[in-house]
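pinging the channel bc i need a second pair of eyes. not urgent but kinda urgent?? the chain im working w is below, pasted from the shared doc
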Amino acid sequence: MRQFILFFLFLSFSFTVLAQNDTIKVENLDKPLSKVKFSAYLETYYIYDFNEPENHVRPNFFYAYHRHNELALNLGLIQADYETEKVRARLALMTGTYSNINLAAEEGVLKNIYEAYAGVKISKTKNIWIDAGIFSSHIGFESAIGKDCPTMTRSLLAENSPYYESGIKISYTSDNEKWFLSGLLLNGWQRIQRVEGNQTLAFGHQITFTPTKKITFNSSSFIGNDYPTAEKKMRYFHDFFMKVDFSDKFEIIAGFDIGAEQKQKESSEYNVWYSPILIAKYNFNEKISLAVRAEHYNDENEVIIVTETQNGFQTSSYSINLDYKITENILWRIEYRSLKSKDDIFIKNENSVSTNLFLGSSLAVGF
């Protein structure tokens, strides 16, 4: 509790400073320190789950906004960035229900690290960087920071693929900024610390192509083993999405994730899971927007989501959310979402049911 209070005293102090100036400038400081920038983000929420879980915990495949019938903090974040022409670094610390559940496997203070990395530019003429540390995942179009996502809650494919990762990556951005390429050497599938007994590193790639300011294509992958070496089962995963801005008012995002994992060590047979998604967003004006989402997640063999039912996790979801930008740095959202599963995987009044409905609202403030 004391750490929690100290964190928010620090957060409140930072808000005060940032309200005056986003960049810290003190004449007596050395020149490099003048390149340090501080920012902060705070997101609270309330969700009413119509299945009414008595313990206030929503289904275990939701890692963000997972508390029912409570006013809760999803994410409180404070971030420091340092950047020069050849060096960059970031330290971002967090608290909230997101970090408590999504980083449950990490030890101690590691649960409170959102990002912590340093990088160096290795070319004098090209935009090539090497970064090492803990950073946001290279997979998908959604992150833990709600204001940067098209919908209030995260999609099933985002919740059940890495939000974060640790390791080293090399990245290249073309001179015309249309191409971004990166290769990654990682500690595992959403791992800061590696699984005990695991002696195999994981690999990833990302290719982003932006032919115009209105169109983006992205391909990302993961190859690795997330088990102790004695139980080694290789996992292969690919994420693809495209984003098209048809106008200043209307945009769509279409994506498809697919993964395969060996059924047993050294097996030639694989368990496969996949997830397609489509999101459409319409901006009525600069302040009000509406987004609708349709998605399906098929994990029949329960590689990622364990249900212990006959057909595993085969679930479709639909949602609609309304956003209102109160000011440039304050966003209020409301969302209605329904889920329908092939099996009775949800609990309502101590009975197994195949549906889950919820209504929620969030308020996000960024500085």
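so Residues 1-31 have pLDDT under 50 and may be disordered. and Residues 18 and 367 are 6 Å apart (CA to CA). — does that match what u expected or am i reading it wrong
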